[in-house]
TrEMBL record:
<dbReference type="InterPro" id="IPR005024">
    <property type="entry name" value="Snf7_fam"/>
</dbReference>
<dbReference type="GO" id="GO:0006900">
    <property type="term" value="P:vesicle budding from membrane"/>
</dbReference>
<protein>
    <recommendedName>
        <fullName>Snf7-domain-containing protein</fullName>
    </recommendedName>
</protein>
<dbReference type="GO" id="GO:0032511">
    <property type="term" value="P:late endosome to vacuole transport via multivesicular body sorting pathway"/>
</dbReference>
<dbReference type="GO" id="GO:0000815">
    <property type="term" value="C:ESCRT III complex"/>
</dbReference>
<keyword id="KW-0472">Membrane</keyword>
<keyword id="KW-0813">Transport</keyword>
<comment type="similarity">
    <text>Belongs to the SNF7 family.</text>
</comment>
<feature type="region of interest" description="Disordered">
    <location>
        <begin position="163"/>
        <end position="185"/>
    </location>
</feature>
<keyword id="KW-0653">Protein transport</keyword>
<keyword id="KW-0967">Endosome</keyword>
<dbReference type="GO" id="GO:0005771">
    <property type="term" value="C:multivesicular body"/>
</dbReference>
<dbReference type="GO" id="GO:0015031">
    <property type="term" value="P:protein transport"/>
</dbReference>
<dbReference type="Pfam" id="PF03357">
    <property type="entry name" value="Snf7"/>
</dbReference>
Length: 204
């Protein structure tokens, strides 16, 4: 099963980046070593000066100064290595992006080949022909129907429209009163028309 797995290919660029990073790590280890020497020379100078050996203290300080100059050189070299690694890695990213753009352009070219002017014109003609054919069918159906058939079609259309329309709300009628109506006696002082007075006199 393990033999079927694809092993990533190590390129020359990968090896170069790996070598640069190894050199960078070695420089960092060397810097730590120099820093240890600097600290030791500083302690030696203090001890010699305390013991009254000024000349030996000066020698220790000179050795320390020399180690400091080495440390500065390693700082410069380390900075150069780190910049070089960053530049190479960024260049590889740019190459990958350019490769992707190249593949994208090739795909676009293939699409443009399939969508040339002749293909578009042919598609438009076929669409126009299909629309014309549909119009002919509509006209033929319209002219071949009799008046009764056309009337039946219109009735069916109105029935479908009635089904789609919302039902009208029922009319709410007023409630019927359950109590007896109150009859009031006519007021004697209310003026009665002359014809009604004559009718009342005859009935009496």
């Amino acid at each position: 099963m393990g033999g079927n797995q694809s092993i990533p290919k190590i390129t020359a660029q990968d090896r170069a980046i790996l070598d640069l990073k190894l050199q960078r790590d070695k420089l960092k280890q060397y810097q730590k070593k120099i820093q240890t020497v600097l600290d030791r020379e500083h302690e030696i100078a203090k001890a010699q000066l305390a013991a009254g050996r000024k000349d030996r203290a000066i020698v220790a300080l000179r050795r320390r100064k020399y180690q400091e100059s080495l440390l500065q050189k390693t700082d410069t070299q380390l900075e150069t290595l780190e910049q070089l690694v960053s530049t190479i890695e960024f260049s590889l990213v740019e190459v990958s992006v350019l490769h992707g753009l190249k593949q994208g352009n090739e795909v676009l070219k293939e699409i443009h080949k399939q969508m040339n002017v002749e293909s578009v014109e042919k598609l438009m003609e076929e669409t126009a022909e299909a629309q014309a054919y549909q119009r002919e069918i509509d006209e033929m159906l319209t002219t071949t129907l009799t008046l009764d058939e056309e009337e039946s079609v219109q009735l069916e259309l109105r029935a479908l429209q009635a089904e789609q329309e919302p039902e009208t709300a029922p009319v709410k009628l007023p409630t019927v009163p359950t109590s007896e109506p109150i009859v009031t006696e006519p007021d004697e002082h209310i003026a009665i028309p002359e014809q009604q007075r004559a009718k009342v006199a005859l009935e009496a």
